[in-house]
Amino acid sequence: MLIATAPEVFAAMSDPIRVAKWWGPAGFTNTIHQFDFRTGGKWLLTMHGPDGKNYPNESRFTRVIASQVFEIEHLNGHHFLLTIELVPKDGGTEVKWRQTFDTAEHYDSIAEFVALANEQNLERLVAEVQHGKSAAHPSPKGVAQEPEPLAAPHVIPWSSQAGQP
Questions:
Q1: pLDDT, tens digit, 9 for 90 and up, residues 121-137
Q2: Domains of the chain in sequence order
Q3: Which residues touch 148 (CB under 8 Å, ≥6 apart)?
Q4: By the 8 A CB rule, do 86 and 67 touch?
Q5: Contact 146, 131 (CB under 8 A)
Q6: What is the strand order of the sheet 54-65 is part of?
Q7: Global pTM?
Q8: How far apart are CA 68 and CA 79, in angstroms?
Q9: 149 touches 130 (CB < 8 A)
Q10: Rounded-to-integer distance, Cα 158 and Cα 4, Å
């Protein structure tokens, strides 16, 4: 559970600049080419791995409900549906992360990697939500606040028009 409101968590999920900071496993950075954040919208990004390889990704937003649900269908490579639900709880928000693959065999072949990658992805989301809360509520004057280290994202251009790279 995150110690943040559902709108604070959703803000980190709906802003492409912020998404580029937390999306993917530890060590990855992202270039977002298109982020049409609406049901039916296209999301194109390249994940840059710590191994120096680039991993192009194409997804479609299948369901977007402000401060409640972020759902994508990942269209290239491993095909899956990812549903992230935000459930307000006393003192915070529960994040329900469900990734559904086409077959059990497909999931079984990558289960170990997916489990670790999703855990790291959620840890990065938590860090970005906390960073966003800190930025929204800066320390009072005269009180030193140590800056949080952030991996510098690659250039993050995006477009809200379908069909644009």
A1: 999 999 999 999 888 75
A2: 6-135 (3.30.530.20)
A3: 127, 130, 131, 134
A4: yes
A5: no
A6: 29-35, 42-48, 54-65, 69-74, 80-89, 92-101
A7: 0.80
A8: 23
A9: no
A10: 27
